[in-house]
């Protein structure tokens, strides 16, 4: 047995490379296609657009990486984002008459968004860990609840931020430092911190251990309940952060805000090499996954080669291909 | 999931209507859920009308359901017939094909059927057809482009969710532009969503150094497109025409915003028209009410904008 | 002498560049029980898998009835009547006993399944194995020995010519093993050829007709059972003398370090009291299902419990396994693969998992972790081809040593070791016993739960025996004999009943 494993180890060494390189190769290939199809692809404006629009899903997907690595799942993030955005706009609009169009209102709005994210994440987490309900069911339920709540808050229409406030808050999405816009900066910070936490802290290691085998983690005196709950809270907070960056973009929230974000985030996580059933996660892979998804849309918009009716099909094919490439590298061992 | 069955009758009216089989008439109203702005306004107008008519006519009951998909809508209709014994149905079909059969069966059972906006795939099923005019919607916008833009101008188009409605609008728009010398650079689906339209418009702006005007085919998409144009700092180069008559956009037209010179109506209040006409047909015997009632799209300009601004509407 | 049913002729097997079987000659004759013994890693599993059609040999050939047989997969082998029972169960947890027994070979009447016949047949089979499990019970709801019996029933339900059993008794108690042997003898008398492996040499003496000893991928000894004493088998397996399996027994000090009073673990244990002295190796005996594991899991906080537990003079709260660990009380599970180790993770990640906080300040110090692994590898003699290998690829013995190293990294004062040598070869066993002694000499106190009589008797100076969720009695010094333990374990002469 032990002699046989030497051999397996050696073989795996080579395949890990493929496993690691898979998503990066896909990203490079997409960038190559983009350059070939449109000379504006590499322009400052386009790159900024793609990165900034990736930020919302990206920030959420970083949190999703932890949840999935620990063996969980959260389907509610898209609706949660819409609900938090609605709540934030409503609070800010309510404060304008008393506080005027001031920085204070924005700060309170941000605090509301982050707090709401924390609470929403905690609700998901506690229902999963304390009540012992399947994550899929819990978050399917909260997904419907948040989506309805935002529709209700908006009376079926659109919640729009006070016009003056919008002008004041706008720079948070559109401005930046040294030509790098804020969403990109925040996304980068979240991604880097996420990568460090996942790879270099006890929390990240505990997530992987729980996802790999929850019983072993429990017998190894890992605080399973606490760690799992924390992954959902972390994700909720990151949804709050994403909303803080989203609201200044168009200053509105409606029932269609954040539609299907959960699926995009989950797809990005899986494309990035995190295992859907948990036990192994990598944040940098998730970032690559998010960029791949954004680039597909961007490239399709930049050309007329493919009928726009087929956009979804192309995304689907690329998602499946990316995952198949990686599985090829890992199943053989 | 978002299906909420709103029985707008007073509490216990179900019991009453069973106990007192008097002349009480019931109208079923089935419309799509408020998943985007226009549908939200549709819900708003439907609820308002139902409330008003219930006060007006003592003998009239309403069953209002909102549905997230065609399948649920079919179940809703079956429930209405089976449990509420409706006398008339006002329905905005989620999709034409799958709902044609179920609605036909209801019509054949002798129930009055009013179809709103989305026509069924077979003719002469409904007693009354109330609809906006999608062709007129596209043509009105197109005519404005032809009138305002010079030959050789370049425009981009943000389309809605791929449906027959979207096709009718876009074909009419293209027909209006035919022969005018205005070039349509590209058309992409913005799915009647602000966020999608923002993204698509960003990419159009990267792709085309010269754009003179944008037809966004819906006011929600227009808001997204304007966001992207402002980000690129190109608001002096082009203007945007949306459609549907969203409050925020009407306001901008009224204020003389150079980016939003006009808007085109496609009134969600048509549901009110449909419910009113149905109620009237049901309550006033002998008043002829069958036929088609087509509400044309009109151009909102700075001069007439005040007529299209509804303070209370969420849309 | 009858002609062999299944034989290996000069068989070798390589994985990549490494040859793990070197020119093995081996035969299985009808009407014999042939024991294959050897240390973990000697190549037993590989050899059995070749016989069972799961692997094909790199050199040499497999012969069935004297004809060259190239099974392309296990299904072909099974069709030829060659059936293998794996050490890891091959059962669908969510299906019933009956469904498992007939999985893939369902009896039909027309297009419908014939449930009645299948149920009756599986009930008969299970009864023959003295496992009274209703055929409709889901496999996930039955005990580990019962699962083993289902596996065996599955094999018995077919037309068996050759039955290959990989350590069938590892999870069985002595009594259960005896029932199994009765069935094995029945099959043998019907003319089947049976190959079986076990680390329990007394069982080999009891059941086998012939023995083949494998060491480092080659046959080192072969012959009739009467040619081998147990010591001779052990010596042939290990290549050195292992007659001194157990170091000298030691009694603990006077200081009581852990005391449990009137502990209930709902559903498993009622009114258990026990005490542990400093530096003592205390044994817990009893049958599988007597509540031994559950009691210890309750004490350490892995299960809810009531009653009082006093650790080093202060009371220990229930249900908080992390607190117990901080205060120096840890439990090493019997379920190495299900609860002990993360099989898809590296050695390091497994080793430091319980005390990761020590290495994270707040970022994990990988150098310190690597040093800890180096030390563990030396201290516990863990043999690994490389540091990055996944734990699932290690042999059972090395996994058990890693699990010990992981537990000892918590620097505990009190360690519960549940079945310390289950499924482990005799050489490693000796090492583990020596290790346990060393720990006791360092002043740590150890509780050993074991179903293996020699282990309890050889290691422990004092033994509590459990029966049906109660502590049935306590044996000290010369009272610790196989007879006394069995008497208490089976509910005869319980002290508790005497007291009542």
UniProtKB/TrEMBL annotation, chain B:
Pfam families: Peripla_BP_4 (PF13407)
Keyword annotations from UniProtKB, A to Z: Signal
CDD domains for this protein: PBP1_ABC_sugar_binding-like
Domain Periplasmic binding protein, first and last residues per copy: 27-277
Leader peptide range in chain numbering: 1-24
Entry's Gene Ontology cellular component terms: cell envelope
Cell location: Cell envelope
Record Gene3D superfamilies: 3.40.50.2300
GO MF term list: carbohydrate binding
Chief location of this protein within or outside the cell: other
Statement: the UniProt record of this protein carries the keyword Signal: yes
Domain of life: Bacteria
InterPro entries reported in the protein's UniProt record: Peripla_BP_I (IPR028082), SBP_2_dom (IPR025997)
SUPFAM superfamilies linked to this entry: Periplasmic binding protein-like I
Keyword Signal among UniProt keywords: yes
Family designation: Belongs to the bacterial solute-binding protein 2 family.
Stated name of the protein: ABC transporter substrate-binding protein
Organism: Mesobaculum littorinae
UniProtKB/TrEMBL annotation, chain C:
GO molecular function: ATP binding; ATP hydrolysis activity
Keywords: ATP-binding, Cell membrane, Membrane, Nucleotide-binding, Repeat, Sugar transport, Translocase, Transport
SMART domains from the UniProt entry: AAA (SM00382)
Domain ABC transporter, first and last residues per copy: 6-241, 240-493
A Pfam family reported for this protein in Swiss-Prot or TrEMBL: ABC_tran
CDD domains in the record: ABC_Carb_Monos_I, ABC_Carb_Monos_II
Gene3D superfamilies xrefs: P-loop containing nucleotide triphosphate hydrolases (3.40.50.300)
Cellular component GO terms held in the UniProt record: plasma membrane
Membrane topology: Peripheral membrane protein
Source organism, top-level taxon: Bacteria
Subcellular localization(s) per the UniProt record: Cell membrane
Annotated PANTHER family: CARBOHYDRATE TRANSPORT ATP-BINDING PROTEIN MG119-RELATED, GALACTOFURANOSE TRANSPORTER ATP-BINDING PROTEIN YTFR
Entry protein name: Sugar ABC transporter ATP-binding protein
Species this protein is from: Mesobaculum littorinae
């Amino acid at each position: 047995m032990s002699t046989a494993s030497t051999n397996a180890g050696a073989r795996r060494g080579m395949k890990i490379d493929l496993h690691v390189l898979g998503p990066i190769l896909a990203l490079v290939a997409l960038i190559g296609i983009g350059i070939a199809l449109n000379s504006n692809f590499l322009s400052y404006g386009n790159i900024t657009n793609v990165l900034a629009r990736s930020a919302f899903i990206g920030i959420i997907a970083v949190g999703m990486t932890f949840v999935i690595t620990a063996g969980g799942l959260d389907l509610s993030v898209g609706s949660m984002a819409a609900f938090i955005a609605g709540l934030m706009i409503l609070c800010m609009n309510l404060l304008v008459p008393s506080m005027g169009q001031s920085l204070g209102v924005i700060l309170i709005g941000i605090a509301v968004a982050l707090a709401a994210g924390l609470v929403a994440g905690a609700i998901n987490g506690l229902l999963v860990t304390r009540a012992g309900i399947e994550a899929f069911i819990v978050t399917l339920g909260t997904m419907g609840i948040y989506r309805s709540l935002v529709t209700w808050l908006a009376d079926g229409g659109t919640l729009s931020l006070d016009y003056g406030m919008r002008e004041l808050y706008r720079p948070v999405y559109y401005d930046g430092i040294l030509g790098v816009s804020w969403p990109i900066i925040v996304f980068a910070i979240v991604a880097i911190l996420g990568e460090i936490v996942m790879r270099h802290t006890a929390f990240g290691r505990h997530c992987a251990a729980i996802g790999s085998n929850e019983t072993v983690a429990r017998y190894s005196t890992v605080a399973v309940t606490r760690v799992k709950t924390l992954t959902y809270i972390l994700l909720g907070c990151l949804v709050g952060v994403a909303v803080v960056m989203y609201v200044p973009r168009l200053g509105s929230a409606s029932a269609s805000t954040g539609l299907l974000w959960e699926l995009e985030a989950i797809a990005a996580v899986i494309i990035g090499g995190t295992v859907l059933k948990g036990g192994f996660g990598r944040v940098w892979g998730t970032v690559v996954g998010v960029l791949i998804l954004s680039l597909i849309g961007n490239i399709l918009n930049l050309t007329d080669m493919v009928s726009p009716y087929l956009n979804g099909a192309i995304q689907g094919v690329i998602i499946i291909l990316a995952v198949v490439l990686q599985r090829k590298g890992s199943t053989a061992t | 999931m978002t299906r909420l069955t709103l029985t707008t009758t007073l509490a216990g009216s179900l019991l009453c209507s069973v106990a007192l089989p008097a002349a009480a008439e019931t109208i079923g109203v089935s419309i799509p859920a408020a998943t985007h702005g226009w549908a939200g306004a549709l819900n708003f107008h439907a609820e308002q009308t139902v409330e008003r008519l219930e006060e007006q006519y003592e003998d009239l009951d309403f069953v209002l359901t909102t549905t997230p998909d065609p399948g649920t809508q079919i179940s809703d209709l079956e429930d209405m017939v089976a449990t509420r014994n409706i006398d008339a149905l006002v329905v905005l079909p989620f999709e034409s094909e799958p709902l044609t059969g179920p609605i036909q069966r209801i019509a054949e059972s002798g129930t009055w059927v009013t179809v709103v906006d989305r026509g069924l795939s077979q003719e002469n099923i409904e007693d009354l057809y109330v609809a906006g005019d999608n062709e007129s919607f596209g043509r009105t916008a197109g005519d404005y482009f032809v009138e305002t833009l010079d030959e050789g101008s370049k425009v981009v188009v943000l389309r809605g969710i791929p449906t027959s409605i979207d096709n009718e609008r876009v074909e009419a728009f293209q027909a209006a532009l035919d022969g005018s010398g205005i070039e349509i650079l590209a058309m992409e689906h913005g799915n009647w969503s602000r966020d999608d339209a923002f993204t698509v418009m960003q990419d159009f702006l990267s792709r085309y150094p010269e754009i003179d005007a944008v037809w966004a085919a819906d006011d929600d998409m227009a808001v997204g497109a304007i966001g992207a144009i402002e980000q690129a700092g190109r608001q002096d180069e082009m203007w945007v025409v949306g459609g549907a008559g969203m409050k925020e956009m009407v306001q901008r037209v009224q204020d003389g915003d150079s980016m939003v010179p006009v808007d085109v109506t496609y009134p969600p209040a048509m549901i009110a028209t449909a419910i009113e006409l149905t109620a009237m047909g049901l309550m006033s015997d002998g008043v002829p009410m069958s036929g088609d009632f087509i509400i044309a799209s009109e151009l909102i300009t700075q001069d007439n904008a005040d007529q299209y601004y509804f303070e209370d509407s969420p849309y | 002498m009858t002609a062999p049913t299944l034989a290996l002729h000069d068989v070798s097997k390589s994985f990549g560049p490494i040859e793990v079987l070197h020119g093995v000659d081996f035969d299985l004759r009808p009407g014999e029980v042939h024991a294959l013994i050897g240390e973990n890693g000697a190549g037993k599993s590989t050899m059995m898998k070749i016989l069972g059609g799961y692997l094909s040999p790199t050199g040499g050939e497999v012969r069935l009835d004297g004809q060259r047989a190239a099974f392309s997969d296990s299904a072909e082998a099974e069709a030829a009547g060659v059936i293998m029972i794996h050490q890891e169960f091959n059962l669908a947890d969510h299906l019933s006993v009956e469904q498992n027994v007939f999985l893939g070979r369902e009896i039909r009447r027309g297009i419908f399944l014939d449930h009645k016949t299948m149920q009756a047949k599986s009930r008969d089979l299970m009864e023959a194995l003295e496992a009274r499990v209703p055929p409709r019970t889901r496999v996930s709801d039955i005990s580990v020995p019962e699962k083993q019996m289902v596996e065996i029933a599955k094999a018995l339900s077919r037309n068996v010519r050759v039955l290959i059993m990989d350590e069938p008794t590892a999870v069985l108690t002595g009594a259960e093993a005896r029932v199994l042997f009765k069935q094995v003898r029945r099959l043998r008398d019907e003319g089947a050829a049976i190959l079986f492996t076990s680390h329990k040499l007394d069982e080999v003496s009891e059941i086998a007709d012939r023995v083949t000893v494998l060491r480092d991928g080659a046959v080192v000894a072969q012959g009739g059972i009467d040619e081998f004493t147990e010591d001779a088998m052990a010596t042939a397996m290990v290549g050195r003398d292992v007659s001194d399996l157990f170091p000298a027994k030691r009694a603990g000090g006077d200081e009581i370090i852990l005391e449990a009073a009137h502990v209930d673990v709902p559903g498993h244990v009622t009114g258990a009291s026990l005490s542990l002295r400093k530096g003592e190796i205390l044994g817990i005996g009893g049958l599988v299902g007597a509540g031994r594991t559950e009691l210890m899991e309750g004490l350490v906080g892995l299960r809810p419990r009531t009653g009082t537990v006093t650790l080093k003079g202060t009371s220990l709260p229930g249900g908080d396994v992390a607190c117990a660990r901080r205060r120096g009380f840890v439990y090493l599970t019997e379920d190495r693969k299900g609860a002990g180790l993360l099989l898809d993770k590296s050695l390091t990640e497994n080793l430091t998992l319980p005390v990761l906080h020590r290495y994270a300040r707040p970022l994990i110090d990988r150098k310190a972790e690597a040093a800890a692994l180096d030390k563990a590898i030396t201290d516990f003699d863990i043999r690994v081809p490389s540091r990055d290998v996944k734990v699932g690829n290690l042999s059972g013995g090395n996994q058990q040593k890693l699990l010990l190293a992981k537990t000892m990294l918590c620097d505990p004062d009190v360690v519960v070791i549940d079945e310390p040598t289950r499924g482990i070869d005799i050489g490693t066993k000796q090492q583990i016993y020596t290790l346990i002694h060393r720990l006791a000499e360092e002043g740590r106190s150890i509780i050993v739960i074991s179903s293996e009589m020699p282990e309890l008797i050889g290691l422990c100076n004092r033994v509590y025996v459990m029966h049906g969720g109660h502590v049935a009695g306590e044996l000290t010094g010369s009272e610790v004999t196989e007879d006394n333990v069995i008497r208490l374990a089976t509910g005869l002469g319980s002290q508790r009943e005497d007291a009542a």
